[in-house]
Amino acid sequence: MDKNRISWMLDGVDKYPFHMPGHKRNVGLVGRDFPYDRDITEISGSDNLHDMSGVIKEECDRAAALWGAKRAHILVNGSTSGILAAIRAYAGHDCSVVVARNCHKSVYHGIELCRLKPTYIYPKTDPASGICASISPAEVDRALADAPDARLVVLTSPTYEGVISDIAGIARVVHARGALLLVDAAHGAHLGLGGFAAHPVTLGADVVICSLHKTLPAPTQTAVALIGKSCPNPAAMAAQLAVFQTSSPSYVLMEESARCIHLLQREGEKLMRAWLQRLTAFEADSASLQHLQLLFRGDLPDGVFAYDPGKLVISTRGANLSGHELADVLRHEYKIEIEMAASDYIIAMTSPADTDEGFALLARALCEIDVRIEADSSAYPVHLPQLHTVYAPWQVADLPQICLPASEADGFVSAEYVWAYPPGIPLVVPGEMITDQMLAAFAAMQSRGTELHSTNGQKPEQMPDALRVVTEESI
Ligand SMILES: Cc1ncc(COP(=O)(O)O)c(C=O)c1O
Questions:
Q1: Which listed residue, 62, 197, 254, 417, has the most CB atoms within 10 A of its CB?
Q2: 118 has which bridge partners?
Q3: Within a domain: residue 72?
């Protein structure tokens, strides 16, 4: 037993990490020891994250130059803090906001905090994989026409599954209607570097939030907020970051963010090209897959504008095992831990810190599993219905509520969120009416191994009192 580790840390560390954080515990690249000797605070010469003028400002300016932004802020409270700050800085209060419905739950928390009225864009689903496709400029334009008082549009690109939207086209329609564009690129910090797709901040987005810790060699919680050249009021973001970030930011996290940014500036091109080469080799090594399918390679499906090859999304649809079962086989037989398992696919997250050996191990495992499984199209794909929004998420707090078994909730307005984490995209948002189809989707997801969570901490299948609903609406 490693005396330096507490017991819950021991379980995962003997597996190859196809998951976050992006440093992949590659100590050859990032070093071995947590640096207590560098864990300082705002002392002479160490600058102040919330009022920067010295060394922290230099690092933020370096980040802005690297990604082509007007300004940058290092974040130590993850992308979550940047998303909340950007919504509060630019969406206004008590007005409409246009939001892609597949956003992370932090966006909904921002809507609640600012008492905004969301107009949702429901992304189309790629029928072959069940994964959300891109958001198009035309969809954004229509949503803005329906919500003329909206000052902000929020969408995710790349998504958790790696789907990229046409940010240049979307920025044009957003700006033409006098609004601003916030892109949650928590999964896209590597964009714009090496041979990867252009970064949203150079494509016209006004604010872009990127987690360093997801796709780059940097520790958990590190992120950057990038302010685009068209953003009219960068100071508003700085003011809100002081609200949503700790007043005691970790200097170790800031230093490691800076180290990551220096590494990218110095060797980013080389690291990204090597990563892309490993991804290409992985594609070649897994080309023989018959039942499992590596998605979004070659011709992209209709509705998918572009794709981030750093995400390995492997579909089990049409095979006789679920995504969860595939994840279990990889964990127990091959000592590979993946990022996320859904009913009929898994996501292996990759980064420049992944090794040739890691990719080869995953390709070999998938090819071996593929020959022992069989085609089976009997598993019914989970269909997620669109729900009718009766109230904005924050409005339900003041309405009378009761708890019901989920099976009896059809026709009631939900007073809470239901989600699977990852990816943390709400299946139900407070204020949406629950339908039989959604309850059937819960059951189908749970029968295939997906764990669902709700705000009150109960699992929707738990009885009784599983879901809090609004009592006055039972339509
Ligand atoms: C799309 C998306 N946005 C935002 C976040 C929040 O990022 P962080 O964990 O860095 O706060 C996540 C986290 O998984 C995410 O997947």
A1: 254
A2: 97
A3: yes
Report the C-alpha gap between 49 and 58 in whole angstroms: 11
Whichever domain contains 315, its CATH number is 3.90.1150.10
pLDDT tens by residue, 45-75: 999 999 999 999 999 999 999 999 999 999 9
Structural domain contains residue 382: no
Per the structure, the complete domain to which residue 236 belongs is given by 34-262
Structural domains of the chain, count: 3
Asked whether residue 223 falls in the same domain as residue 308, the answer is: no
Task: Check whether residue 275 and residue 253 sit in a common domain.
Answer: no
Q: Judge if the beta carbon of residue 79 lies within 6 A of ligand 1.
A: yes
Q: What distance in angstroms lies between residue 108's CA and the mean position of ligand 1's atoms? A: 12
Please work out whether the CB of residue 22 comes within 6 Å of at least one atom of ligand 1: no
Q: Are residues 301 and 323 in the same domain?
A: yes
Atom number of ligand 1 nearest to Cα 75: 10
Other C-beta atoms closer than 10 Å to the C-beta of 16 total: 22
Q: What is the pTM of this model?
A: 0.94
Q: Quick one: how far is CA 98 from the chain centroid?
A: 18
Q: Whole-angstrom Cα distance, residue 434 to residue 470?
A: 11
- In single-letter form, the type of residue at position 404 comes to L
> How far apart are the C-alpha atoms of 413 and 411, rounded to whole Å?
7
pLDDT in tens, 239-260: 999 999 999 999 999 999 999 9
pLDDT confidence of residue 148: 97
**For 213, what's the count of Cα atoms within 13 Å in the CB-facing half-sphere?**
18
User: Do 452 and 446 contact (CB within 8 A), yes or no?
Assistant: yes
**In angstroms, what is the span from residue 382 Cα to ligand 1's centroid?**
24
Would you say how long the chain is, in residues? 475
Confidence bin at 463 (pLDDT 50/70/90): very low
Residues 251 and 281 in one domain: no
CATH code at position 460: 3.90.105.10
**Nearest-CA neighbor of 235 among 245, 223, 247, 227?**
227
In a domain, 380, yes or no: no
Is the same domain home to 251 and 293? no
Residue 402 dihedral angles phi and psi, to the nearest 5°: -135, 165
In this structure, are 423 and 368 located in the same domain? no
Does residue 464 surpass a pLDDT of 90? no
> Ligand 1 pocket: which of 79, 132, 220 to mutate (most atoms <8 Å of CB)?
79
CA distance 224 to 189: 8
